[in-house]
Amino acid sequence: MYKGGMGMTIREKTEEQEFKIFSRYASFSRNSRGRDREEEPCDIRTVYQRDRDRILHSKSFRRLKQKTQVFLIPEGDHYRTRLTHTLEVSQLARTIAKALRLNEDLADAIALGHDLGHTPFGHAGEQALNQVCPSGFKHHEQSVRVVELLEKKGKGLNLTWEVRDGILNHKTTGKPQTLEGQIVRYCDKIAYINHDIDDAERAGILREADIPEECRRMIGDTTRMRLNTLIHDVVVNSEDRPVISMSEDMEQMMRRLRAFMFERVYHNSAAKREEGKAVRMIQDLYYFYNDHPEMLPAGYQIMMQECGQPRERVVCDYIAGMTDPFSIRTYKELFVPGSWH
Predict the structure, then answer these.
(1) What count of other Cβ atoms lies within 10 Å of the Cβ of residue 276?
(2) What gap in Å lies between CA 29 and CA 26, rounded to an integer?
(3) How confident is the model over 57-66, as pLDDT tens digits?
(4) Which element (helix H / strand E) includes 208?
(5) What is the DSSP letter of 100?
(6) Three-class SS state of 65
(7) pLDDT of amino acid 340
(8) pTM of the entire predicted model
(9) N or C: which terminus of the chain has fewer CB atoms within 10 Å of its end residue's CB?
């Protein structure tokens, strides 16, 4: 273990610096509620830095690059995926956390992990599993299941309580216990509303003039202006306060913009026409593996046989972990006749 001057490790020096620099409302690394399984501290990294690194190096994080954000399997290199969405949330969260003198590493870890449990084909896949699984399916709950159980062959990533709380509560209805978690909850919406507008305009589904005039007047009429306005509003209204918030007018206008996106893009656009096929495909895969659990990979069978996990939940685990192209390939192998050689 490396120890520098005064016999302190780099981690210990970083923890001391947090008490000098951070706001009194920050989540201090040394005060973390800890992990489910105790571990020897790192001599260089704080607990939240370790959590961030574990998420970055996880298989579930890498798979996000081939999972739908909004547009299913788009023809073009510039549309967002679940991975680029995650990175944009992380960037916004770090900016706000740093401006408010909160724990940037904790905000970063929560942001990077918040969508690890997302299904292939975005919310269409989530809806598909939620309809057929007896216990339901929610991607924020699945993200926690990924980091607590599914990664590392059933051992999970053993993340701190604060990171798992932020991941679980990043949805609109969530109530994160840390200010860093509250930041991610806002940044998730700020990011997806704005980058989905950008993608919809690129796809020819929206024009800037289609966006409600009151939203353009108050928030801005470019992606850059909207992000700048919303981030500044969060910072100004949250500085030196024990809660993260927006001004009432700005939050109302963001809800108006979000409702507009649901009406014009998320539910009714031409880009969503293929979603019905995706839902049927995901549900067919669920029914097949539920009837034939012996066809699941060995690691998932162990979870049922040796860990006592319910079959329906393990089937959801396997399907939710698939990427878009892998799920299509698997469906073809199971249900589409191949050529005879």
Answers:
(1) 11
(2) 9
(3) 999 999 999 9
(4) none
(5) T
(6) helix
(7) 75
(8) 0.95
(9) C
Q: Which range has the worst mean pLDDT, 10-14, 130-134, 234-238, 274-278?
A: 274-278
For residue 81, list its beta bridge partners. Answer: 68
Neighbouring CB atoms inside 10 A of 74's CB total 17
DSSP SS3 for 81: strand
Rg from Cα positions in the chain? 21
Tell me which CATH code domain 5-331 carries.
1.10.3210.10
Checking if the pLDDT of 272 tops 80, the result is no
Please give the structure tokens belonging to residue 265. 């893009």
- DSSP 3-state assignment of 79? coil
Which distant-in-sequence residues (6+ apart) come within 8 Å of 112 by Cβ?
A: 52, 55, 56, 61, 86, 90
Per-domain residue ranges of the chain = 5-331
In Å, what is the CA distance from 285 to each residue of 4, 116, 129, 279, 320? 55, 20, 10, 10, 11
